[in-house]
Each structure stands twice: as structure tokens, then as C-alpha cells.
């Protein structure tokens, strides 16, 4: 049986329109819990190393333990006050069986608009193995589309990729890189507080960008990202 592990990271510029918002630089990250389940151990093993180009925003947080969400950048320019995340950054993950595959996801949001989510999707054969085999990798190119780089393009170890976020021709994108990046604390969906999950399930808070790993959109994104 094949399994898919989708891991996605969340970056800066996610914003909200609802109540209980906090300045984008004042959201505190969740500490990375000790993994307990097979899913949590696999997600940590495949968490990517992220390099963020100087021309784009640093990584910020989406939600805190109290369920308060970021109010986003202030908009005088798209990199306004976003070069440094003084309280740190965060990786958000989610995993479950899907059509005989196993998805665990890293999501990212950047400054190409008020909030813009990016995903890295790593498909493996079995998360319970000591060293699962990577079947494929998918990277989001928009809210609803993914590309699938060839195995010859993978850069990193047999578990952790090096990934760069950058500005391309007219749009932002993610690509493999030889540059050393950073590892952000990973928090899985089930490890979030109830208040944080409720806040992330309120999709209206993220304006025109779909919140990719909440209950409404998670399965739809799995189908979009599935390379097989």
C-alpha cells in the first residue's frame, strides 16, 4: 500500500478580517511538541529546511494558542515591516490517509498579497518505516495548483529537502536550493489548541486565499497535490 506524506510550511503575510486579531509581529509560535504518533514522527523527519530570499518577507505566525490570528501586513508596500520575525516562525502540518496514500502537509504564506499560502508535499511509501522511501514531491504554484519536480531535481538528504522561497517572474514560488536554510518549529493540526483550530477553520479570516489545511479545504488540496 502506498502512502503519501504532505508537509507544508506557513510563512508571513497571512491576514484576517474577523475579530480577535493581533499585530503580525506579536503572534507567539507554538513550541514543537515531542512526537508521539507515527504521523508526528514522520512529519518531523520530513520537515524541510527553508531558505527565504532577501527580496521577500520573513516567516510569521498565523495563530496563537488563544485562537488570536494575525492582522497581517499594513500594506504601504508588500514587504512593509516584514523582514524579521522577532518571535520566531512556525511550520503547520496535517496528516491522514487519503485514497490509499498518507498526506502530512507543510504550508507557507508570503507577501505576494495580504496572505498567500504555499505548500511542500512529500509523498512516501510508509511513515511507519525507519527510513520511508520518497515517492514524489509536490510544490504549490497557486492556491489550487501544484507542480511535481523530477527526482533528479531533489536537493537535500533522503528525508529533508532544502527549499527556497523567492520572487519569480511576476509571482512568488518555491524551488529546491543548495543554500542552507532554517528549520521552524512544527505543530501538527491535532496538536493545536481547540481555540486555534476553530480560528483556522473560519476561512473568511483569510480573505481571498483559501486556508489550505483546515477542515473545509484540506481534502480538496490533497486531491490537487496528488501526483499519481
From TrEMBL:
Keywords: Secreted, Signal, Virulence
InterPro entries: NPP1
Signal peptide, first to last residue: 1-20
Keyword Signal tagged: yes
Assigned GO CC terms: extracellular region
Main location: secreted
Cell compartments where the protein resides: Secreted
The UniProt record lists the keyword Transport: no
Pfam families associated with the record: NPP1
Entry's family note: Belongs to the Necrosis inducing protein (NPP1) family.
Protein name: Necrosis inducing-like protein NPP1 type
Amino acid at each position: 500500500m502506498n502512502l503519501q506524506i504532505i508537509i507544508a510550511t506557513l510563512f508571513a503575510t497571512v491576514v484576517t478580517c474577523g475579530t480577535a486579531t493581533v499585530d503580525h509581529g506579536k503572534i507567539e509560535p507554538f513550541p514543537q511538541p515531542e512526537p508521539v504518533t507515527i504521523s508526528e514522527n514522520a512529519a518531523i523527519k520530513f520537515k524541510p529546511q527553508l531558505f527565504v530570499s532577501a527580496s521577500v518577507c520573513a516567516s510569521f505566525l498565523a495563530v496563537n494558542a488563544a485562537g488570536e490570528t494575525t492582522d497581517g501586513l499594513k500594506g504601504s508596500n508588500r514587504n512593509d515591516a516584514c523582514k524579521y520575525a522577532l518571535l520566531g516562525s512556525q511550520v503547520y502540518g496535517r496528516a491522514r490517509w487519503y485514497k490509499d496514500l498518507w498526506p502530512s502537509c507543510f504550508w507557507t504564506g508570503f507577501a505576494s498579497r495580504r496572505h498567500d499560502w504555499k505548500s511542500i508535499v512529500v509523498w512516501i511509501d510508509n511513515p511507519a518505516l525507519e527510513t520511508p522511501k520518497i515517492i514524489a514531491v509536490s510544490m504549490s504554484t497557486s492556491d489550487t495548483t501544484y507542480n511535481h519536480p523530477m527526482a533528479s531535481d531533489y536537493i537535500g538528504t533522503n528525508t529533508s529537502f532544502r527549499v527556497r522561497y523567492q520572487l519569480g517572474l511576476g509571482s512568488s514560488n518555491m524551488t529546491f536550493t543548495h543554500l542552507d536554510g532554517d528549520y521552524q518549529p512544527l505543530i501538527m493540526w491535532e496538536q493545536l489548541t481547540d481555540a486555534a483550530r476553530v480560528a483556522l477553520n473560519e476561512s473568511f479570516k483569510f480573505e481571498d486565499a483559501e486556508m489550505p489545511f483546515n477542515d473545509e479545504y484540506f481534502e480538496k488540496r490533497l486531491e490537487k497535490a496528488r501526483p499519481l
